[in-house]
Amino acid sequence: MKTIIEPFRIKTVEPIRMSTREERERLMAAASYNLFNLHSDDVIIDLLTDSGTSAMSAAQQSALMGGDESYAGSPSFFRFEAAVKTLFPFKHVLPAHQGRAAEAILFSVLGGKGRSVPSNTHFDTTRANIEATGAEGVDLVIAEGLDPESLHPFKGNMDTQRLDAFLTANGAGVPCVMLTVTNNAGGGQPVSLENIRATAAVAHKHGKPFIIDGCRFAENAYFIKLREPGQAGRKVEDIVRDMFADADGMTMSAKKDAFANIGGWLALNDDALAQAARERLILTEGFPTYGGLAGRDLDAIAQGLKEIVDEDYLAYRLRTSAYIAERLEKLDVPTVKPSGGHAIFVDARRFLSHIPPLSYPGQSLAVALYLEGGIRSCEIGTVMFGQHPDGTETAAPMDLVRMAMPRRVYTQSHADYVVEVFERIAARKSSLRGFKIVWQPQRMRHFSARFAPL
Ligand SMILES: *Cc1c(COP(=O)(O)O)cnc(C)c1O
Q1: Which of 36, 60, 113, 281 has its CA 20 to 30 A from that of 226?
Q2: What share of the chain is helix, strand, coil (3-state, %, to 5)?
């Protein structure tokens, strides 16, 4: 069939409050043109993030009622642990309240001054947790991964030659090698099975543990099935097991590919490392059979992990992003290619070439999407990355607008609506103006900066 339908029926609905353009103009000005300041019930289509925004299934909702809230030894934990180990057969599984908590625990043990941790591209919380210990995060993605026009099928791949050279030069200070699947900070681009195996081999040649940041493991596995020679006939679950077979551990945010609203875990094979991590877990998250989560959350994750590897779901998931990107391309709206799994990235600097980077073309497009259609997206460009600790400002390498797709939440008519909003903006894009920042904090300004239109 040409039409890939949403492989679910809708049993519970959450009404969307429709708003008028006049109303949105007032709300946007009151929010100082920062989309993080909007109340979410003033948003029609919320594409700010795919994190924790998934729709739970009927089976997950009923699993919540089976949650056991005992402090120690809850059956919910053992269901969670069994579900994790079915896909990722690591010896130790430590629950955590979300992905960054798993990272903080891992690097409280492995980090420290003078150390460095290579990855394809560290996600921002991973980098922040590494750097909070005094260590350094190093990104070694292949060159194609940094080129928005490249059509390489696995733009998230590690440059294994550079990794090998890096480990030869800095080996003593490297506690582990990481790999993010899919590469979120690099546009949701996948990593091939061949590259995962090659990265593991280089890490192990230098005697380093190999840890996967597995947040979007199922999307990555489905890209492998679609794009990697010899993988087409295989079950996604088997591909997932192969992806993790050579790894020594993983960090995970269950707010991504586990269909949960909260949760995460750290998994490890090494007994001594796991023991040190467990001691830290008790200090910061909780007893090892709940790790900062309610029993019901553990059950929601256990059920979510069974559902996320469903191939009809994954086909619909990846098709949604590709469908929007293809239609935007026909409107001459440039996007990062090929489209990633969880999000569409629009190249705002190219689309609004009359707005210079320091007038924030990404912010201009994000504001226009809200005013025109009540769509909330996220600027990933000079607003987010242009501010330096010494108070200076420079243009980021790219000015992108990310539209992240919540899982199982929106339908094809929502996607068509998003495209129609772009169509209207494209027709009058030369009238769009840049922005200036009228107030900003010392760091992470994108969350709270106040803007004024130029
Ligand atoms: C979201 C994310 C994290 C952090 O997870 P949280 O649950 O948000 O703390 C880490 N790595 C990647 C790749 C992510 O997408």
Answers
A1: 60
A2: 45, 15, 40
Query: In total, how many domains does the chain have?
Result: 2
Measured by CA distance, the residue closest to atom 3 of ligand 1 is 99
Q: What is the percentage of the chain residues whose pLDDT exceeds 70? A: 100
Is 219 domain-assigned? yes
Domain holding 344, by residue range, is 21-50+310-453
* pTM more than 0.90: yes
53-107 residue pLDDT tens: 999 999 999 999 999 999 999 999 999 999 999 999 999 999 999 999 999 999 9
Domain boundary among 282, 307, 332: 307
- In degrees and rounded to multiples of 5, residue 380 shows phi and psi of -130, 85
Nearest CA to ligand 1 atom 5: 99
Query: Nearest residue CA, atom 11 of ligand 1?
Result: 123
How far does the centroid of ligand 1 lie from the alpha carbon of residue 135, in Å? 19
Query: Do 282 and 315 sit in the same domain of this protein?
Result: no
* Contacts of residue 125, Cβ cutoff 8 Å, sequence gap at least 6: 99, 100, 103
Within a domain: residue 11?
A: no
Do 341 and 279 lie in a common domain?
no
What pLDDT, in 10s, does the model give residues 249-271? Answer: 999 999 999 999 999 999 999 99
Residues whose beta carbon lies within 6 Å of some atom of ligand 1: 51, 98-100, 123, 125-126, 180, 184, 213, 215, 253, 255-256, 264
* Beta-bridge mates of residue 232: none
